[in-house]
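We modelled the chain as a single entity of 255 amino acids. Its sequence is:
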Amino acid sequence: MNHSSQEWASQARHPGQPQFSAQAPGPYGQAQAPAETVIHVPDKRLRRYDKVAPGEPTVTIQQAGPGTDGRPLAYVHVPQDAPKGGRRARPPFTVSGPNGEPLGSVRSVGDGVYEVYGGDGAPIGRITRRGGRILPWPRRVQWSVQATQGIAPLVGEVGTSKAWVVFVLISPLYFVCWAVMAAQGALWLLLGEKGEAKKEAAWEMEPPTWTRWRSDGEPDVAIEYQTGRKYRLASPRLDHRLAYAQAVLHVWDRA
């Protein structure tokens, strides 16, 4: 790690807080997560991280599923004064455990590449976002998770090919419907019905979101996202700190 990376990563350590105590390493050398966990990562506060009150976490990563009661698993902290770099360079953030222990930190190095560090400042992996495009040929947004040791890189493309074909085919119909809804909203606004106008304006069609991360040539999915800001972590070999970082970056992309 170069000097600047060491300096930045050291900021993830909070004075007065216990240092992260790694879990017993699994066969691949990472801190293991349970065999399967579903987490929920809200995205509203990520969009306005600069408005979050000092001392409060920007996002709370919660356990989802029956009987979990939304138990907090980790807290994400984004500096209020961090510049908004867009999808190719999100602001740096740190992740702490339920008791305040530092779990890790994430820093953009530009061009959609993020370095991930553990609570002790040591590098544990890299996350890369490759942007989508239409020309010269269509390409979906692609995410990859590469641990410094252990499992092979995990790659996930946003949306299935069939879902994107359907989305493109029905888009013209959506724009017609949107124009009608917008006209109705404007009419409600002229009549003084702001609530009804907001309902009409809120109608939108979300592009395909289903994303599954797996190693090349492997049928088993390590991370899966369908909808609702919920992620299924299905591989015990995956370092949960990398999974949390990927989930935050992925949901931030959709915020």
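As a brief sanity check on the tokenised model: The mean pLDDT is 81. The longest helix spans residues 161-190.
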